[in-house]
Write a structure and sequence with these properties.
two-stranded antiparallel sheet, 15% strand, nucleotide-binding, ATP binding, five-stranded antiparallel β-sheet, 339 residues
Length: 339
């Protein structure tokens, strides 16, 4: 019996040692608890602005998330076309079950609950049950801009010039509004053609606000992904991303698959300080379906706007309001683009 006592004491000491909290563990647990409390406050606030919908209702609306209802798959989740008794058709985004997507879910919820604009996708509801995270949007019958610019082989999709200009104007108008909102200025920071949705009239709606950040009204600097940035840098990043999107609109080339082309084109545009010759710009870079239609001059002006947006030095780029005004000037120079 005497030989068992030391072992019993040793095991007890080991158990006590395992249960002891280090300062680092305590700090981590405190931060996690603080995050949980903040998340609960955000969700509670969102419920006052956006309806909370049960998982069962969304499951029924998507026919148990039938594969035939899938209208899009992205990095954060799968989007389904859903039918509701009173809302007609909607788009339900079911987020993947990843811990890091929790913040993006809350970001979309808080931002789209507060911001309402004709060029921002409307959020109609949300679901938060167990490990499920779902967002309910207004359905956009013309899908996203990326699919129109880069159709699958065999799909007869073509965006006419006046539609491309209208889309560019709408995106710039929406971003300018976000950058200059009276109380809650915002930078999108994740702009691409895949997050531009098109309604039945081909009016653009900006989506995907998971990485968006509020812009400080003071000159305090912001730390994001270990990169120090000021509010000026945030808005100018949006301007650069819009510039790349404008190039995609006018060249028809996918930035992700043609990175060398874009770097080369950006370099040429910057070297020429936007003073491009017709032969150099129009016939080497522009989507050939846009040429010879009677608005070659407007196409060149469009290129110049893109050039201004992708200047390598941020403070040389225009503000989003200035971009919007330049694009509006292009829209108003041709009668087919009015509307």
């Amino acid at each position: 019996m005497s030989c068992c006592v030391p072992w019993a004491r040793l095991n007890k000491r080991k158990r006590n040692k395992v249960m002891m909290k280090t300062p680092m563990m305590t700090s981590l647990m405190e931060r996690q608890e603080k995050k949980r409390k903040e998340a609960n406050i955000q969700i509670s606030t969102s419920e006052k602005l956006i309806p909370r919908i049960s998982f069962a209702e969304l499951q029924k609306a998507t026919n148990s998330f039938d594969r035939g209802k899938v209208i899009g798959v992205g990095k954060t989740g799968t989007v389904y076309k859903a039918a509701h008794p009173h809302l007609r058709f909607t788009a339900v985004k079911r987020l993947f079950d990843f811990q890091h997507l929790e913040e993006q879910f809350l970001s979309e919820l808080m931002i789209l609950g507060k911001f309402r604009h004709k060029n921002i996708v409307p959020l109609l509801g949300f679901c938060l049950e167990s490990r499920e995270r779902l967002l309910l949007y207004q359905y956009m019958p013309n899908g996203n801009l990326y699919d129109w610019l880069h159709p699958v082989k065999g799909e007869p999709k073509n965006l006419e010039w006046h539609l491309r200009v209208n889309i560019a104007v709408g995106i710039a108008r929406g971003l300018a509004w976000l950058h200059n909102h009276n109380t809650l200025q915002l930078a999108h920071l994740n702009l691409s053609s895949s997050c531009i949705l098109l309604d039945k009239h081909f009016d653009p709606r900006i989506s995907n606000f998971g990485r968006a950040m509020h812009i400080m009204t003071s000159n305090a600097r912001i730390f994001m992904a270990n990169i120090e940035m000021g509010e000026w840098d945030l808005t100018k990043r949006d301007v650069h991303q819009l510039g790349v999107l404008l190039l995609e609109l006018i060249t028809g080339k996918d930035p992700l698959k043609n990175s060398e082309f874009y770097h080369s084109l950006e370099g040429k545009l910057v070297q020429n300080n936007c003073l491009l010759t017709v032969s150099a710009a129009l016939y080497c870079a522009v989507d050939k379906s846009l040429l010879g239609q009677g608005f070659d001059r407007e196409v060149l002006d469009f290129l110049k706007v893109a050039c201004n947006c992708i200047q390598p030095i941020p403070n040389r780029r225009p503000t989003m309001v200035e971009v919007y005004k330049m694009l509006m000037a292009i829209k108003n120079t041709h009668p087919d683009i009015l509307g």
